[in-house]
Amino acid sequence: MEAQFLPILVGFVVAMVGASIGVGGGILLVPIFTLWLHYPIYVVVPVSTVCVLVTSISATPSNEVKRLVNYRLAFILELSTVLGALSGAYFLSRFKASVIYQVFGVVAFLVAVLTLIRSFSKEKILKPSKGQEIGILGGWFTNSATQIEEAYAVREKHFPFVMGASYVAGLFAGLLGIGGGALKVPILNVILGVPFRVAAATSTFMLGITAAASGFYFFINHQIDFDLASKVVMGVFLGGKVGAHLMRSLPVEVLKKVFTLILFFLSFKMWSAGL
């Protein structure tokens, strides 16, 4: 009986953490299910992809109420991210498990480093100058410290680089089942100047599109374990909603630091498992 409920519990905790910081949760779910619950990584990655999709669906409506999602920016970046996701899904069954473990370890380590750097730096928000318009990709957000609605713009000159980086994020999403949000949030916040909470909410919405693309590939190729996926999804759906609420109430710096510590540990464990 405990074994039946364990995937549900893990799904709930992973989705809660993931949605609260704008990542799909797959970067936590894959190591837990492969290293501690001993599922094959070829089974876990497609299941994780389904869970990333559910996390996005359950969390996005809550974020939309607070007007946190920048839909225009999301759809443009997904043009290259979806291509990357399909590429990654294609390569999953063509790489050895040990290679996937090591790639996962490296990606998790890089994400942890990026998150650590952000935790010690001031939030990068590109605010329009007086009299300057926010542009077609800019928007408004409520400052959590002052509760005042403020405008933000987007560094459009960096878009060629960002589109390329989005393809890479999609590639890792399809190959590793991580959603790509762990890479998208730094891209949106640090490079484009989008506020962290807007970046996290927009990333969560984008995860759904990315996961739908790679998930469709896994589905038509019969790579999804629906029995395991149904159990994990039950927890993920509820956890995603709780995480979306936590994102609006917990201090951003606390979220960054906790996430970083977990990622450093998991990156080492996944890399070691591939040796």
Walk me through this protein's architecture.
This protein has helices at residues 2-21, 26-36, 41-65, 71-92, 97-119, 159-176, 181-191, 196-220, 226-249, 252-273, and strands at residues 139-142, 149-152. 73% of the residues lie in helices and 3% in strands. Helix 1 (2-21) packs antiparallel against helix 2 (26-36), helix 2 (26-36) packs parallel to helix 10 and helix 3 runs parallel beside helix 9. The chain is globular, with a radius of gyration of 18 Å. Strand 1 (139-142) and strand 2 form a beta hairpin. The model has no long low-confidence stretch (mean pLDDT 84). It has one domain (2-273). The chain has 10 helices and 2 strands. It has a two-stranded antiparallel sheet with strand order 1-2. The protein has 275 residues and is mainly alpha-helical.
Helix-strand topology string: HHHHHEEHHHHH
Number of helices: 10
Global mean pLDDT: 84
- The residue ranges in which pLDDT falls below 50 over 5 or more consecutive positions are none
Q: Termini, distance in Å? A: 34 Å
- Across the major sheet, the strand order is 1-2
Domain tally: 1
Give the proportion of residues in helices. over 70%
Structural class computed from helices and strand pairing: mainly alpha
- The tally of strands reads 2
Question: How would a textbook summarize the main sheet?
Answer: 2 strands, antiparallel
Query: How would you name the oligomeric state of the polypeptide chains in this document?
Result: single chain
Cα Rg: 18 Å
Portion in beta strands: under 5%
3D shape? globular
